[in-house]
Structures are given as structure tokens and as C-alpha cells.
Write a structure and sequence with these properties.
The structure holds four protein chains of four kinds.
Chain B: H1 3-18, H2 26-53, E1 65-71, E2 76-81, H3 84-103, H4 111-130, H5 134-155, H6 160-195, H7 207-211, H8 223-240, H9 249-256, H10 259-284, H11 286-312, H12 317-336, H13 341-372, H14 388-401, H15 408-423, H16 425-432, H17 435-450, H18 459-466, H19 474-492, H20 495-508
Antiparallel strand pairs in B: 1-2
Helix pairs in contact in B: 1-2, 1-4, 2-3, 2-4, 3-4, 3-10, 3-13, 3-19, 4-5, 4-10, 5-6, 5-10, 6-8, 6-9, 8-10, 8-11, 9-10, 9-12, 10-12, 10-13, 11-12, 11-17, 12-13, 12-15, 13-14, 13-15, 13-19, 13-20, 14-17, 14-19, 15-16, 15-19
Chain C: H1 2-24, H2 28-48, H3 52-76, H4 92-114, H5 129-133, H6 140-149, H7 152-173
Helix pairs in contact in C: 1-2, 2-3
Chain D: H1 5-22, H2 28-55, E1 63-73, E2 76-84, H3 86-109, H4 116-135, H5 139-157, H6 164-195, H7 200-204, H8 210-227, H9 236-239, H10 245-254, H11 259-266, H12 268-272, H13 275-297, H14 302-322, H15 326-353, H16 371-384, H17 391-410, H18 413-441, H19 458-469, H20 486-501, H21 518-522, H22 536-561, H23 573-579, H24 584-631, H25 638-659
Antiparallel strand pairs in D: 1-2
Classes of the chains: A mainly alpha, B mainly alpha, C mainly alpha, D mainly alpha.
């Protein structure tokens, strides 16, 4: 399969992730959309690594993975603490830092 | 060797040391501040003597010069230099600061900060007069602005915030343009130097490099770049002088600031603007200054007459003195841009005279405001009988300010206007015409306060009914007497000052070569 | 050859569907599950691209560890509350978001189609150690060698990152006393 | 030749410093000792120098003594020096001599004034300034003297600074004098531009191009017109009568106002180089003489009559100088100093005797009571009217004679007209002087009887107020009037003697005596040898006519006011016009003062207030406006921020896509 197919796939996934972030108001869903975007990038990394026949791509996927893990951990902890204080989690409520 | 740095840094360190004093020991703070200022004055007088021993020009080797490398590859080094002109202005600044600190013993709130800012202000001005590297000049230019803002902003009158804000806006816009100019001149100079063969010439801001035509790395800038750079520099100095369209910060700043601060602002700080024109603009951009000089002269003459007419109908004491001060500075600028030896020596001499006379006038206005609490002219009247000594001192200062022949301002004004007349007859005549409105508003100022029938209502009459107004206290008299003596001395014997100034002016101006009329 | 294409298309459609599911489901748990499915399909993609190690890692860590954490949190946080009844403060947000998404896709695909066609393997530039190692067609041993030689430093950094993350979670997790 | 001019300069200065600093605490006798001492010694030094100058041959009579180097800037370098030559010697003698007499007189006149010491300090300062003006050896220090003299007159006019009218008069005098300084400064610039130096020796021998010479001469004349109260700039002198009478006598009659005449005489080589300027000098002199004499005809305040008379006589001096006869001008200056000072001091004695009353309508019949003052006043009146043996006759006729001769020599009809004006003015002078004399001394005493506001005319009230402003207790009873103390009458007598014999220092050629004019010979020949040498018959005609005019004037005055002054209000417009001094003050106010003040007020409100302040305030509101607009971008919704990021990404990608 040509490389561009995989790249289009990754672009598609990425876009879906972005739209998810923009549309949904539940932070968890936003989190998942971000994960989606990360994975889209992973896909393109792997595809390129495969087509360029170099392991660098996969290295990055590995790193992205760890970063994603760290991010999820902290993110979820944050959401839990916010939830404990406010009992409802809606992104639009959290606009104290308004200009 | 590091005499000049000592002169600049002493008040700075003194000011900082002052901050460690306990807040409530107000008397001790005042005394030490005055002591520091007097020691600084002695230091400067020592400098004068050192200079007079071997009266030198700006570039001769034995010229009192210090230079340490700071950013070598940017051509920026901590270099100070002094010649006759900066000597005179440095001495004026040191004297006025000592006197103004002496006159500030009535400031009650936050005395420690006040004194520290005054000393910082002094070191900023001294730095401006002594710096001979553009970068260092800019740093001291800003160091001078900050204490002025705080002095005006915290210890001023009711509208001090507005006045301070406007003051900073005007001055900083000007100085940022100057910064652009400074950066650009280094760059264009390098270009020109390389073009002129000196391939190894680097970016330099060292004044001696830029001005010294015989130096290996000297490039001559072409007309248009000179003009643009000159406009950048002129922006900062025109605001500080002030020239007419940029002067509207001055009346507010001078009337709202406490009297000793206004005396220092009017006496010394306004001279940095004119000094900037003289030391930087004219030597660095000879061709451009020629194309611009007629316009500046016209602005100066308009300023002279416009502010003199405005001063006629001012009701606020300090505002009136502010406008009169702009008018005098107009005469100084007219003399400077006449490019004649008499005009330029006269303008430097007039800088000193104006510094002395305005300082006395503002201090007296401050004493009056302290006694009666009002600055409106209509409230006053007929005080000469009650406060004779203050009336006499004010009369002498008023006479000096209106240019009475025989006192100090006459000598400077006469030379400046003579130079202006020789350069351009119509502007010379219009400039000299200021003598008439000047006499009119100065007399109206003096008569309004001291002669005539005492006012029946208003703050002054209340004081008169309550307990009368005290005459000059010993401290106040001691503060003014040195200046009054100088007013008489320079009036009778100006040769002392012109002897110092004239060779330096001739030296600074040889870059104009043919244009400079002896 | 056709098997590749067919499998690719099937996988592509499936992944897209589940990805849309993630953002479409009202209920957070459903979107979490659909995300897990997306991850699995991606792992298959990786297999198709002969990135064995990455595929396994993907399933093990991503699908396994991270998504479990997700599910745990999602179920804990009042799954029944769905957001549709809440008034959307900035309605225009959705429309603009959608539009921008479409523009993004169009631009990317246009770029991909017209861009240089990268079909065959190309000699990797530079003299990174990984280039010598991939002579073994990208299998796990090569991956290990590359990881611990070329990318040792980033590897250590990530370990530091994870420690920090754990501390962060601890701090936020503490019950406000 | 012993030259004590430096002492003549420094002694009054010393007197001023002592009195200025310590005068307040000194007893009256000590004040007088210092005051009289300083001025007396100065006069003594002047006399010594004068006699030693007489002893030296005419050629070496000038001594130029450099005191110290004053200033140097580029090619401009100047030393302060003193020049003692016959001209400055004459002026020195007049200044210090009359000054001394007035010092003595003031001791009596100002006896009851609380700030007695301040008066003598200012007098000494004035004499120092006048001496500086007269013996400076370069134009710059002439300007310094010019300014200081203006300051002295300001201080002395505004001596009673509590009175609003005195303060206004002082300010007006100073500002108009500064206009003179302005003219002098421009002249000095032109001189330096042309000759490259400012000292008399260098400048007066330098020949300027015609145009510059005329410009310099005219500018110098502007200064003279301001200082000597000639036509365009004379209005400060009548108001200067607000000052104490000795001041009027010294400054506004004898010395300061003659500074202009001295300047023209000093700079005569410049004036000789431009005949046009001389014509202007003569013309303005004549016009002022006539103009001032007409106003003096109807004045009620005795000091204002004398003030206008001074302006008129100064006009005569400038007329003389206009026809190249500078020594005649100086001669009239000297004689005028004697009899005008005497007239003022006499008037002062009258005012002193009537406790401050200055209005003619409340005097009369004082001949019986003030015998000495009356006699000396009569002598002075005769002198000023140009009656035969008295000083005024000789000096005035020399002027009129040379004007007529000059007209005859050049055949220019204008000089005949000028001569006719001279004769007419001589007649008018005689008339108003004797109107004044009879008003004060003849008829019966109108002091107590006349109620203050018996007449309706508004502006007479204004004159009343001005006169009444002078702090006087109210009309004095007739028989309680007594003549002044000897300290005041001795100067009167001395001046009277001088007014009689003063004329004989002038030319006596008229009566066949050999050309025996000590003053003309004493002054440098060049000051009068350009003047026209008219034939003896012409001399006889002009002298005869001027004598006739004088006698006629006295006769008319005798007929109208012989039996005492009766103020008749008549309403014909011409009379009103002259009575109100041609409304000059009102015109000056309307044309110059009010418009300038209005301009200043509007400028400061609109240009300064709205445009400049508004401008800076406008800029700050501009910045505030943009910042509030920018603030709305921070909505607080996280999704908006995400949208922002996406927008950025999309733009970049589209850019690259389009760029291709």
C-alpha cells in the first residue's frame, strides 16, 4: 500500500481528534480526542519509518507513548480533583481565568 | 585616574547608603543627604581645578578620559570624557542639587526615598554630561528619567499623577527613538567605514571613534541617513529642551512637582536636552544639522515669543515660571543653532545663568507656596512690607530673569542673540523682541506678589489675618544666598565662564569647519 | 497484492468509524470503549507495516494500561450526566470547528496527493546508528539496538518524565484537607 | 590729567550698598551722612577731574581707562573701561551736581516718610547707574547703564508701592524703557556686525555703509525716544509723576531723560553719516516740542504741567542735534537741568507746604506765604520762557538760530517750518509756565473754600483721584502755610542763581562780543562746526521773535490768570481733546495692551489647553481603546483557545498548499 494512504488515514484520524476537542464539552471526551490525535501521529510515524526503512520513526512512537501516558495520568488526576470540588465537569464552567 | 567615575558614582552610592537609614530619623537623613551633596560639590570643584590646570580639548590625550571595555565587539565601552562645556554643566548640576536638597527640609513624607531619588537623579545627569559613548549616554539618560518620575509622582501636588504620566510618555517616546538612532548610527557608520576602505572596522558606538575624522575607521554618512538619524536623536532632545510642539508636559510637571524638584528639573535637566544637541547632533551630523537648523531656529523663535505671551496671563505662579523658562530655553537654542562662536558660547553661558536664576525663582515660589498654601497670583499682593527679605531676593531673581543688563542672564542672552543676529537678522530681531514681554510678565509677576494693595480674600489674606507670614528663615536664606551671589558675580565678571566655554565650543565645532563663523 | 489493499481499506473504515464513535457517543463510557477499539485497529495497522514491537507495545500499554485508567476514571465520574441538556454557551463554536476540520482534511489530502510520492525505501540521511541496524528489516532486535544506542538519552528522559507524572498525580489526587 | 571718574562711579554704589543693607537700622543722621557723603564726594571728584581737565590742553582731554576684561567669545572681546572726555565731564558735573542738590533737598521733603533710608539708597543707586551710563567707554556698558537707570526710575516711581497708581506707572515706565533697550541692543548688534568691536574709540572712527549707518542711527534714536520720552514713547513720563517730587526733579527733569540727548551727542559721528536719521531726529524733536506744549496748556496737576514741559524742552534739544548743532543741544540740556530741577523742587516745596496738594485749583495767593519758593519759581519760569538775561534765553535762541540758519543754508522749507514751530512753542511755554505761576502764587487762596467735587466733568475726577492719591490730609488753612525749611530752600536758591548765570556759558556772539562760548569750545569742535553759520541778521531775527513770543505768552497769561486761577469748564471738542491728552493712554490701552492680554488668554485656553493637552490626552485614550478591544479575545472558554490553535495550523497548511 502506498505511503500516502497511511498518511491520509493519519490525517483523517487527526482531524476527527481535533473536531472532538472542539465540539465536546466533557473534558474526558476531550482527553480521548487528544489521545486520538496522538495515535494518528503515531500512525504516520510508523508508516514513514516503514517506508523510509529506518527505526527512528518507531523510536518516536515509543517516546510519544510514554509522553501520552504521563499526560493521561496527570490529566485525569486534575479532572478528578476538579470534579471533587465542583461536582460537575463542564469545560465552559471553568472560565475564571477570563480576560 | 577614575576621577570622573567617582564624581558620577558617589551620589549613586550615597543615595543607596541612605536607604539603610531607619525611617524615622528624618533629621539625620536630611543632614547626611545634604552632606553627601556638599561632598559631591567639593568633588566636582576639585574636578574643575584639575581641568583648569591643563585646559584641554575633547580629544587631546591628557583630556580627562576614562575608558573600560564593556562589550568590545559591539564597540560599547564605559568611557567618560569632559571638556569645558560639560565641566560647566556638571558644576551647575552639582551646585543646584546641593542647594535643592538643602531646600527640601520641608518634605515630610518618605524623606529617605526622596533624598535617595534626588541623589540618583544627580548621578544620572552627571552621567549624561560626562558619557562619551552613545550606549552609556543612553543608559544615563534613562537613569535620569526614573527618579524624576518618582519625585514628581509621589511628592507632587494634586494633579501629580497626570503630570508625571504625561512627563514620562513624552520623554520615553523621545528616548526610545533615540535608542533606535543610536543602534542605527553604529550600523551605518560601520557600513560607511567599510565602504571607505577600512575593511576591518567593526560596529562602534564610541564617540571618539565616530567623531574623530583622522581615525582609521571613520566613515562619513551621506546626507539622507544623517537626516534620519538626526531626527531620531532630535526627537529625544527636543522633548527635553523643550522645543515648542513638544512642550506641553512642562507646565504641568513644573507646577505639580515640589519646588526643589522643579528647581532641579528646570535648572539642570532641561540642559541635558540642549547638551545633547550640542555634543551629539551637531558634531555627528554636520550636513543634516545644516538643513534642519533653519527649522529649529524658527521653532525656537516661535517658542520664545509664544511662551512669553502665554506667561503674561498665567494665574499659577509655577506655571508662569515654567513658560518663562521655555522662553529662555528658546533663546538658548537660537544661540546654539546660529553656528557662530558668540551664539554658541552665549548659549552655554545662558544655560548656566538660566539654571541659577530659575532655581532661585522656583525655590522662592516654593517658599511662598509653603507659607500660604496657594499658587494663585490673585490671592497675593502687597507682601513686600511683611516679608522684605523674600521680596528683595525675588526681585533680584526676577530682574535677572528678565535680562536686566548688569546681571547674569543679560550676558548669556546678549551673546546668544548677538550670534543669532549675525546668523539671521530677522530671527535675531524677533528673538531680541522677547525682552519687552519678558519685562512685562516678570514685573506683573513681582508686582502681583509683592507690591500693590494686599488681596482682601483668598488663602493669603487668611494667613495675614491669622498670624502674618514669616520672612525668610535662616536656612532658606542660606540656600538662596550662594545663587544670588553667583547672579551678581557672573553679571559683573562673565569672562571667567566664557574663558572655559569658548575654547571648548571652538573645539567641538571644528567639525563644522567652514560653517562655523568665528 | 490485493489482500493488502482490501485489508487496508477494511481497517481504515473500521478505524474511522470507531474514531467518529469516540467523539459522537453521548455517554463517556461508550466513547472510551470505542477509543479502545480504535487503538486495537491501529495496532493492526502497525502489524501491517511490520512494526511488530510497536504493535505489541500499543496493545499492551495503550489499550491495556492507559485505557483501563480511562475507564476507571470515566465510570467513577457520574457517567449518567450527558451534556446535551446543558446550554451550549458558544454555539458558533461547533459550526466553525466542523468547518475548520473539513478545511484541514482538504488541505492535508491535497498536500499529500500533490506532494512528492514517497513509494520506495529511500536511503535514510545522516549517519544515525539506527540506519546501520535496520539491515534486519526492522525487527525487534534491531529496534532494541536502536533504542539503547541511538536514543539512550531520550529514553532516560522519558523515565524522568514518568516519575514527575506520578508525583503530579499524587499531589492532585490528595484529598483536599 | 587726574581722572577720578572711577571714584565718581564707585562712591554712589558704595552709598547704595551701605544704605541698602544697613539703612533700615541706621538713624536718620547716619543715613544723611552716607547719602550726602557719597554724592558730595562724587561731585567733588568730578569737580577735581573737571578742573584738571581744564588745565590740560584741548588735545589730550580724553582719557580712556580700562578697568577689567569683561568677556570674550570668538572674535568678540570686550573690556569695561571709563572714558572721561569733555562731553562726559559736562554730563558728570550736571548729574552729580544736581544730584547733590536734590539729595540735600530730599532730606527735608522726605523727612516724614517711614522708609526714609530706602529713598536715599535708591537715589544713590540712580546716580551710580547714570554715571555708569555717561562714562562707559563702549556701547555695551552704555546699555548696562541704560538698563540700570531704567530700573532706578522703576524703583523710584514705585517708591510708594502700596499705591496702585504708582505701581502701574512704574511698570509702564519700565516696560517702555525696555522697548528702548531693545532698540539699543539691535543697534549694538548692527555695530558689532559692521565694525567688529563695540568701544567708542573703534566704532566712532569706523565708517559704516550708508544703509547700516542710517539703521544704527535710527535704532539708537528709538532708544533715545524711549528714554527721553519723545513722541511715540513719551506716555510714561507724565505717569512717572506718581513718584516723590525730588525723584521727578532729578530723574524726570534733569538727568535720566537727558540720556537720549547725551547718546545722540556721543554717537554724533554715526549720526553724521546718515543725514536721513538727523532729519528724523529734528522732525520728531520739533513735533514732540509742539505736541507736549499743547497738552501742558490745560493740565491741572502742577507736576504734570512740568512733565509735559520737560518733554517739550527735550524736543528742543533733539531739534538742535537734528541740525548738526550737538553742542547747542548739550547747552540747552545743562541750562534745562538747572531751571527744570528748580521748577520741580519749587513745586515740591509748594506740595510740601500744602501737605501733598497738587491740584492748581486748590492753590493760589501763596506769594505772600511762600516768599522764597515764589521768587525762585518766578526766576525759573522766566528762564524757561526765554526771557533775556536768564539761562533759557541763551540756549533756546542758539537752537532756534541754528535751525533757522540751517534752513537758510540748505534752503529746505521744512526747517523753516521747524523754526516756526520752535517760536510758537516758545510762546506756548511762556504762557503755560506763567499760567502755572499765577495759578499757584497769584489771586486768593482757594485751598479751604473749594469743595472737592464741585464740577461735573468725569475725567477731572480721574485727575482728582490721581492727585488725591497722594497721601495728603486735606486742604491746609491759609495762614498755617509756612515756607519750607532752609534744607529745602538752599538748593532752590543755588539753582536759581545757576538759572540766572547759567546762560553765560553759551555763545555771546550775538551782542558783538567776541565768540566767547566756553561750553562750545570745551566740547569737541566737531560737535558744532557742521552746524550752519547763519549771518548776524538772521540771528537777530530769530532771537527777537522768540523773545517777542515769550513776552506775548507771559502777557496773555497775565491777562487771563493775573488775578488768580479760575477753572472754567468749556465743552468745545478741541479743548476736550487736548485736555484729555489726546486720549493717548486710552488708545494705547485699547490698541496694544488689551489685545495682547486677550491673545494670551485665548492662546493659553485653546492652543495650549485643547490642542496640546487634548492631543496628549487623546493618544492615551486611543491606547486604552485598543486594549479594551483586545481584551475581549480572552473569552475564558478553553475550546475557543483550541479553535484559535487550529486556525493557526490550518492557515499554515493552506499557505504551504497554495504556495505549492
Amino acid at each position: 500500500m502506498p505511503l500516502s494512504a497511511y498518511l491520509i488515514m493519519s490525517a483523517l484520524l487527526f482531524t476527527i481528534g481535533v473536531i472532538g476537542v472542539l465540539i465536546r464539552r466533557n473534558p474526558l471526551i476531550i482527553f480521548m480526542s487528544i489521545e486520538l490525535m496522538l495515535n494518528a501521529v503515531n500512525l504516520s510515524f510508523v508508516a514513514l519509518s516503514h517506508f523510509l526503512d529506518s527505526a527512528d520513526g518507531q523510536m518516536f512512537v515509543f517516546l510519544v507513548l510514554t509522553v501520552a501516558a504521563a499526560e493521561v495520568v496527570v490529566g485525569l488526576a486534575l479532572i478528578v480533583s476538579i470534579y471533587r470540588r465542583r461536582h460537575n465537569i463542564d469545560v465552559d464552567e471553568m472560565n475564571i481565568m477570563r480576560g | 585616574m577614575f576621577f570622573l567615575s567617582a564624581v558620577i558614582l558617589f551620589p549613586l552610592l550615597g543615595g543607596l547608603a541612605l536607604l539603610f537609614f531607619p525611617r524615622e530619623q528624618v533629621r539625620a537623613i536630611r543632614m547626611t543627604a545634604l552632606g553627601l551633596a556638599l561632598i559631591e560639590l567639593l568633588l566636582v570643584l576639585g574636578l574643575d581645578l584639575a581641568y583648569l590646570q591643563n585646559s584641554v580639548s575633547l580629544f587631546s590625550s591628557s583630556f580627562l578620559h576614562e575608558s573600560w571595555r564593556w562589550f568590545p565587539d559591539l564597540g560599547i565601552n564605559y568611557s567618560l570624557g569632559m571638556d569645558g562645556i560639560s565641566l560647566v554643566l556638571v558644576s551647575l548640576t552639582a551646585l543646584l542639587t546641593a542647594i535643592c536638597i538643602g531646600a527640601s527640609f520641608r518634605i515630610e513624607s518618605k524623606v529617605k526615598n526622596y533624598m535617595a531619588f534626588m541623589l540618583l537623579f544627580e548621578s544620572g545627569m552627571l552621567g549624561v554630561f560626562l558619557a562619551s559613548n552613545l550606549f552609556l549616554f543612553y543608559i544615563f539618560w534613562e537613569v535620569m528619567l526614573i527618579p524624576a518620575y518618582f519625585l514628581l509622582g509621589t511628592w507632587g501636588g494634586e494633579r501629580r499623577i497626570y503630570a508625571a504620566f504625561k512627563f514620562v510618555i513624552y520623554t520615553s517616546v523621545g528616548s526610545f527613538l533615540m535608542l533606535v538612532g543610536i543602534i542605527a548610527i553604529g550600523y551605518y557608520h560601520q557600513l560607511a567605514a567599510v565602504a571607505a576602505g577600512g575593511t576591518s572596522c567593526g560596529y562602534t558606538l564610541e564617540l571618539s571613534q565616530l567623531l574623530n575624522t583622522s581615525a582609521t575607521c571613520h566613515g562619513v554618512l551621506d546626507g539622507t541617513t544623517q537626516l534620519w538619524l538626526l531626527l531620531a536623536f532630535a526627537a529625544a532632545f527636543a522633548v527635553k529642551v523643550p522645543l515648542i510642539p513638544f512642550h506641553s508636559w512642562l507646565p504641568d510637571a513644573y507646577s505639580e512637582a515640589p519646588a526643589p524638584v522643579t528647581a532641579l528639573l528646570a535648572g539642570a535637566m532641561s540642559k541635558t536636552g540642549v547638551y545633547g544637541f550640542l555634543r551629539l547632533c551637531i558634531p555627528l551630523f554636520p550636513q543634516a544639522i545644516h538643513t534642519l537648523a533653519p527649522y529649529i531656529n524658527v521653532l525656537a523663535v516661535v517658542g520664545i515669543l509664544y511662551c512669553a505671551v502665554l506667561a503674561l496671563m498665567q494665574t499659577d505662579l509655577k506655571r508662569l515660571l515654567g513658560y518663562s523658562s521655555i522662553s529662555h530655553l528658546g533663546v538658548i537654542m537660537l544661540g546654539l543653532f546660529s553656528f557662530t562662536a558668540q551664539g554658541m558660547t552665549g548659549s552655554v553661558l545662558q544655560m548656566v545663568n538660566h539654571g541659577i536664576t530659575t532655581a532661585v525663582l522656583f525655590l522662592i515660589a516654593g517658599f511662598l507656596e509653603y507659607r500660604t498654601g496657594t499658587r494663585r497670583l490673585q490671592d497675593y499682593g502687597g507682601l513686600a512690607a511683611r516679608i522684605p527679605w523674600l521680596a528683595v531676593m525675588m526681585f533680584i531673581a526676577a530682574l535677572s530673569s528678565l535680562g536686566l543688563p548688569g546681571l547674569n542672564s543679560f550676558t548669556g542672552e546678549f551673546l546668544s542673540l548677538l550670534g543669532a543676529f549675525r546668523a539671521n537678522v530677522t530671527l535675531g530681531v524677533l528673538g531680541t523682541l522677547v525682552v519687552v514681554p519678558a519685562a512685562w510678565y516678570m514685573l506683573r509677576f513681582f508686582i502681583g506678589l509683592m507690591w500693590g494693595v494686599p488681596a482682601t480674600e483668598g488663602a493669603v489674606s487668611a494667613n495675614l489675618r491669622k498670624g502674618g507670614i514669616r520672612d525668610l528663615s535662616l536656612g532658606e536664606l542660606g540656600v538662596i544666598i550662594p545663587l544670588i551671589i553667583l547672579i551678581f558675580y557672573i553679571g559683573v565678571q562673565p569672562a571667567v565662564l566664557t574663558g572655559i566655554i569658548d575654547p571648548s565650543v571652538a573645539n567641538t565645532m571644528q567639525v563644522l569647519s567652514s560653517a562655523f563663523v568665528k | 497484492m490485493t489482500f493488502d489493499i482490501v485489508s487496508f481499506i477494511v481497517l481504515a473504515v473500521a478505524t474511522t468509524a470507531t474514531a467518529l464513535g469516540v467523539i459522537a457517543f453521548k455517554n463517556a463510557v461508550h466513547s472510551a470503549l470505542s477509543l479502545i477499539l480504535t487503538l486495537l485497529f491501529l495496532a493492526l495497522f502497525y502489524l501491517q507495516l511490520q512494526a511488530m514491537f510497536i504493535a505489541v507495545v500499543q496493545i499492551l500499554i495503550y489499550a491495556g494500561a492507559i485505557m483501563v485508567l480511562f475507564l476507571f476514571v470515566v465510570t467513577m465520574l457520574a457517567p449518567d450526566q450527558n451534556e446535551s441538556d446543558l446550554k451550549d454557551a458558544i454555539p458558533w463554536q461547533r459550526i466553525v470547528g466542523g468547518l475548520l476540520g473539513l478545511v484541514l482534511v482538504a488541505a492535508l489530502s491535497y498536500e499529500l496527493f500533490t506532494g512528492a510520492q514517497i513509494t520506495g525505501p529511500k536511503a535514510a540521511a545522516g549517519n544515525s546508528l539506527t540506519q546501520a541496524v535496520t539491515a534486519y528489516h526492522g525487527d525487534t532486535q534491531a529496534f532494541g539496538m536502536a533504542l539503547f544506542h541511538g536514543f539512550l538519552f531520550p529514553f532516560e528522559v522519558t523515565s524522568l518524565l514518568i516519575i514527575v507524572a506520578i508525583l503530579g498525580a499524587l499531589v492532585f489526587g490528595r484529598r483536599a484537607n | 590729567m587726574t581722572n577720578l571718574s572711577l571714584w565718581v562711579l564707585l562712591l554712589p554704589l558704595l552709598g547704595f550698598i551701605i544704605l541698602g543693607l544697613a539703612g533700615r537700622f541706621m538713624p536718620r543722621t547716619a543715613i544723611l551722612a552716607v547719602g550726602w557723603g557719597a554724592c558730595g564726594l562724587a561731585f567733588l571728584c568730578a569737580a577735581i577731574s573737571f578742573f584738571s581737565m581744564l588745565a590740560t590742553p584741548a588735545a589730550q582731554r580724553t582719557s580712556d581707562q580700562v578697568v577689567y576684561h569683561w568677556i570674550s567669545a570668538g572674535t568678540f572681546s570686550l573690556d569695561f573701561g571709563l572714558l572721561l572726555d569733555p562731553l562726559s565731564m559736562t554730563m558728570l558735573l550736571v548729574v552729580t551736581g544736581v544730584g547733590l542738590l536734590i539729595h540735600i533737598y530730599s532730606a527735608g521733603y522726605m523727612a516724614d516718610d517711614p522708609s526714609f533710608w530706602r529713598f536715599f539708597a535708591y537715589l544713590n543707586f540712580f546716580i551710580f547707574a547714570m554715571v555708569m551710563l555717561v562714562i562707559a567707554n563702549n556701547f555695551l556698558f552704555l546699555l548696562v547703564g541704560w538698563g540700570l537707570v531704567g530700573l532706578a526710575s522703576y524703583l523710584l516711581i514705585g517708591f510708594w508701592y502700596q499705591r496702585r497708581s504708582a505701581v502701574a506707572a512704574a511698570q509702564k515706565a519700565f516696560v517702555i524703557n525696555v522697548i528702548g533697550d531693545f532698540g539699543l541692543m539691535l543697534a549694538i548688534f548692527l555695530i558689532f556686525q559692521g565694525a567688529g568691536r563695540l568701544d567708542y574709540a573703534g566704532v566712532l572712527t569706523h565708517t559704516f555703509p550708508a544703509a547700516t549707518a542710517t539703521a544704527i542711527a535710527l535704532l539708537l534714536f528709538v532708544a533715545c525716544a524711549a528714554k527721553s520720552a519723545q513722541l511715540p514713547l513719551y506716555m510714561w513720563l507724565p505717569d512717572a509723576m506718581e513718584g516723590p517730587t525730588p525723584v521727578s526733579a532729578l530723574i524726570h527733569a534733569a538727568t535720566m531723560v537727558t540720556a537720549g540727548v547725551y547718546l545722540v551727542a556721543r554717537a554724533y559721528p554715526l549720526f553724521e553719516q546718515s543725514p536721513a536719521a538727523l532729519a528724523v531726529v529734528a522732525g520728531i524733536g520739533g513735533a514732540t516740542a509742539l505736541f507736549a506744549a499743547t497738552i501742558a496748556l490745560f493740565q491741572l496737576d502742577i507736576k504734570r504741567v512740568l512733565a509735559y514741559s520737560t518733554i517739550s524742552q527735550l524736543g528742543y534739544m533733539f531739534m538742535a542735534e537734528g541740525v548738526h548743532n550737538y553742542s547747542a543741544g548739550i547747552f540747552h540740556l545743562v541750562t534745562h537741568a538747572f531751571f527744570k530741577a528748580l521748577l520741580f523742587l519749587g513745586a515740591g516745596a509748594v506740595i510740601h507746604a500744602l501737605a501733598g496738594e497738587q491740584d492748581m485749583r486748590k492753590m493760589g495767593g501763596l506769594w505772600g506765604r511762600l516768599r522764597v519758593t515764589g521768587l525762585t519759581f518766578l526766576i525759573a519760569s522766566l528762564a524757561i520762557s526765554g526771557i533775556i538775561p536768564f539761562a533759557g534765553f541763551w540756549s533756546k535762541d542758539e537752537i532756534l538760530g541754528s535751525v533757522l540758519a540751517y534752513g537758510n543754508q540748505t534752503g529746505n522749507v521744512w526747517y523753516y517750518i521747524l523754526w516756526a514751530i520752535g517760536i510758537l512753542t516758545a510762546g506756548m511755554t511762556a504762557f503755560y509756565m506763567f499760567r502755572l505761576f499765577f495759578g499757584i502764587f497769584a489771586g486768593d487762596y482757594r485751598g479751604a473754600s473749594v469743595a472737592v467735587n464741585d464740577n461735573t466733568n468725569g475725567d477731572v475726577e480721574e485727575q482728582e483721584a490721581a492727585a488725591a492719591g497722594h497721601h495728603h490730609a486735606g486742604p491746609v488753612r491759609y495762614n498755617s502755610i509756612h515756607d519750607v525749611a532752609p534744607v529745602m530752600s538752599i538748593p532752590l536758591i543755588i539753582l536759581a542763581i545757576l538759572s540766572v548765570i547759567g546762560g553765560f556759558i553759551g555763545s555771546m556772539a550775538l551782542f558783538g562780543l567776541p565768540n566767547w562760548s566756553p561750553l562750545a569750545n570745551f566740547l569737541p569742535a566737531a560737535m558744532h562746526n557742521h552746524a550752519a553759520e547763519g549771518s548776524l541778521t538772521l540771528e537777530w531775527i530769530s532771537t527777537g521773535l522768540s523773545l517777542l513770543a515769550g513776552v506775548l505768552g507771559i502777557g496773555m497769561a497775565w491777562r487771563l490768570y493775573g488775578k488768580g486761577f479760575a477753572f472754567k469748564q468749556n465743552s468745545n471738542p478741541l479743548y476736550q481733546l487736548v485736555f484729555h491728552k489726546y486720549y493717548v493712554d486710552e488708545i494705547l490701552n485699547a490698541v496694544l495692551i488689551i489685545p495682547v492680554l486677550a491673545l494670551s488668554r485665548t492662546l493659553s485656553r485653546y492652543l495650549e489647553g485643547d490642542v496640546l493637552d487634548g492631543g496628549s490626552r487623546g493618544i492615551s485614550t486611543l491606547f486604552r481603546g485598543t486594549s479594551t478591544f483586545m481584551r475581549r479575545v480572552q473569552t475564558g472558554y478553553m475550546r475557543n483557545y483550541a479553535l484559535g490553535i487550529l486556525l493557526g495550523v490550518v492557515v499554515i497548511i493552506v499557505y504551504y498548499a497554495v504556495r505549492g
